[in-house]
Structure formats: structure tokens, C-alpha cells
Amino acid sequence: MQLQTSSTPLLTAAALAELIALGRNRISQIYLHWTAGRYGQLYDDYHFNIDADGSVYQTCTQLTQLKSHTWHRNTGTIGIALCCAHGALPHNGKDAEFGQYPPTPKQIDAVGKLVAQLAQGLAIPIDRWNVLSHCEAALIDGYGPYSGDAEKHAGTYGICAIHPATG
What we know:
Blueprint lengths: L1 E2 L9 H11 L5 E6 L7 E2 L4 E3 L5 E3 L18 E6 L6 E3 L3 E3 L7 H18 L8 E3 H8 L8 H4 L14
Parallel strand pairs: 2-6, 2-9, 4-6
Antiparallel strand pairs: 1-3, 4-5, 7-8
């Protein structure tokens, strides 16, 4: 479900601290995404949406709220999406052509800072098993744009091309 930025709250330091306090010992992984939308389009499938200017929108009431961001990996996880990549084309899960709505430097900076704060507050190790892109999860689980299963590949491209662990 697409949300309006005017009705979705910007994440504040106080709100993040409260979300982290309520989520301790209940969250084990963080998944990174792109929305495949345009800048300014927020989606309710994620706990946080990050717009082109680096603004972080809180699209959950609790970190334990079940969101449908990563196939079969939503319980006990957080989904963070960059609002970008409309019309992007992935290539073998390693890079992508982002078209007219590529991730911006401000989005990349904001997602890095948000992941660092969440990982520290929730005691989640920042490694390839606990902080993954949706694309990385799809490749591990055997689905995605190169699995040959057309039913499971839509929306699973993730952000491999900008996730440092992918290389």
C-alpha cells in the first residue's frame, strides 16, 4: 500500500529510541530494499522508508510489526526501503541500472546511519547473515529474478548494487 508523505511521520531520535527499547531481544535481522517507485513514494510494506533527501519516514508502530518486505523472512526482522529505482533493471544480483530514480547519496548515508543505530540498539551484528539486501536473501533462498520462477521474482531485486557486503 502506497502512503502519503504528508500523513506519515518523520522518524525522530526519540521515536527511534522508543522503537528500539520495545524491540530489544525480539529483532534478529535487518533487510534493505528499494521500493521500485519514484522519489517521494512511500510504501507500508517496510518499517522505514528513506526519501531522496535522506528523510526517514516511520511506517510502523513497533519494530515487531509484521511487514511483508522479504518473502518468508518477515518475522523478527526490520525492512528498510529507499524510495527509488522506478524502472530499475537488475543484473545477476550484483549491479543494476537504476534509471531516472537512482539511490541518492543522501539516501545511502541515511540508510547507513539508520542501520548502525538499529544494530547497536538491538545488538544485531552487522554482518552478511544479519544485515542483508532483499536481493541477497533471494539469492540465498533460491528465488529472484534469476531463479526461473516467474511467480517469485517480482519485487525481489533488493539493493545488492549499493549494499557494501555484496562487493
